[in-house]
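Hey,

Quick one before I head out. I ran the complex with KG4 overnight. Inputs first:
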Amino acid sequence: MYILGIETSCDDTSCSILRNREILSNITISSLREHRKYGGIVPEIAHRNHLKVIGHVLKVALEKAGISLKDISLIGVTNYPGLKGALLVGVNFAKGLAFSLDIPLIGINHLHAHLFANFVGNKYRIKFPFIGVVISGGHTEIMVVNDFDDIETVIRTVDDACGEAFDKVGRAFNLGFPAGPMIDRLYQKKYKDAFIFKCGKIKGGLSFSGIKTALIYKKMELERRGCLSRSLKEKLLSSFQESILRTIVDSIFSVADKYKIRRIVCGGGVVANTRFREMILSRHDLDVKVAPKHLSVDNGAMVAGLAYYLFKYKKKSDAIHTLDIIPN
Ligand code: KG4
Ligand code: ZN
């Protein structure tokens, strides 16, 4: 069967066509460039951009896949979580298509889709249960995944997501937006403990807001004293990255040990980070999957993939007239 996946939860407008779990096309237009000068995502810009380009993105996705609209037999669309206006564009578009083609439609949880990105475009067999990890600009969550539709979050951040903390720090250091990839590049292992920055834990959740502020204050203090050299900046950023990633990876390992689950599946933009990959792959007793870069960022293929699994194994589909976005 051919499945169309539609993703519009943040700044990426993405449509993908799968033939079962094989990716035929995965086309994305991002409004990221337009947000850069503001140092973060501006919802209004994202919403309007989705509206402007979504028809074109679908057309290109169909052309690349070599099929026409009437060949599609299932649509998956992200309906939670995300920017409300952005989700509305994708969901409304998907509803119109499903209605006119008279085919099933499934609202997809974006975070769950990030996990199942590991199981599209390859032959990996999905074995439950596994520990699911999503680290992105909007979320940092560790989940216990018992089935396609039985997923429980056991740890999340109580304030800034990991990528958000990276991006905010990047703004203070003039690294451009998004800053995660730049911090990744500037990281040097020899500086990982140059400064001691500690992440907080509040009511069992992770907190990255305090460490972000501590780093920015330290930078300002060094600046005032006139001694903020390039290498000191690298030391600050390396110690900051090390502490955040160490905290996340230690939490993942402790959840795996607590639940006695040896399989770990990771997705979300931050899992592209070199140091994260090194840390998470360090435990040889664990079977760890990390989504490849083109599938770890937001994309339509992961949405189509989860829709396919939910339809095939759980007989799931949503009523077109009631499917709605879910408030965050
Ligand atoms: O999953 P994603 O593409 O979009 C969201 O759903 O948020 O993640 C984007 C986030 C940004 O905060 C960005 O700074 C971060 O992922 N990021 C990285 C790296 N590549 C992207 N963070 C650290 N190291 C990287 N290599
Ligand atoms: Zn995402």
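The chain is about 45% helix and 20% strand.

Talk tomorrow,
K.
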